Amino acid sequence: MRWLVEFSNERRGILARYGIEAPLPAAAARLGRNAVLAEYPSPPRTGRLSLFEQAERLGGQDASGWVLHRIVKENAQGSPDAVPAHAA
Predict the structure, then answer these.
(1) Closest Cα to residue 37, out of 65, 79, 69, 5?
(2) What is the distance, to the nearest Å, from the Cα of residue 2 to the centroid of all Cα atoms in its chain?
(3) Rounded to 5 degrees, what angle do the CA atoms 56, 33, 11 make?
(4) What is the C-alpha R_g of the chain?
(5) Contact 69, 80 (CB under 8 A)
(6) 16-38 confidence digits (pLDDT tens)
(7) Which residues, at least 6 apart from 73, have a Cβ–Cβ distance to it below 8 Å?
(8) Residue-level pLDDT at 88
(9) What does DSSP assign to residue 41?
(10) Bridge partners (DSSP) listed for residue 8
(11) What backbone torsions phi and psi does residue 43 show, to the nearest 5 degrees?
(12) Could you say which DSSP state residue 68 is in?
């Protein structure tokens, strides 16, 4: 099955879109995350983490800043079909 996966990074102002071949939405999200981290690696750290960054990590937030924005199933014509939020 082919999925259209979008990730956003609010801090860097980037929206990344990938077409992923995977059997389930969760697998597509994982593969898309690997792709976005490979294409947009985190900039090197130049010092200690700020208090805000430390709090984000303690709260379970991802330090990279990338968030799964949207995942949809592509139909045979290549246009996306909506996927219910509970399926992702």
Answers:
(1) 65
(2) 16
(3) 45
(4) 15
(5) no
(6) 999 999 999 999 999 999 999 99
(7) 1, 2, 3, 4, 25, 80, 81, 83
(8) 47
(9) P
(10) 15, 67
(11) -65, 150
(12) E
Where does the pLDDT of residue 86 fall: very low under 50, low under 70, confident under 90, or very high at 90 and above? very low
Tell me which of 57 and 64 has the higher pLDDT. 64
Residue 67 · residue 9 · CB < 8 Å: yes
24-60 as b/e, with b when 16 or more CB fall inside 10 Å?
Answer: ebeebbebbbebbeeebeeeeeeeeeeeeeeeeeeee
Query: Is there a contact between 65 and 12 (Cβ–Cβ < 8 Å)?
Result: yes
User: Which of the four pLDDT bands, split at 50, 70 and 90, describes residue 15?
Assistant: very high
Q: What is the DSSP letter of 65?
A: -
Predicted pLDDT at 62: 66
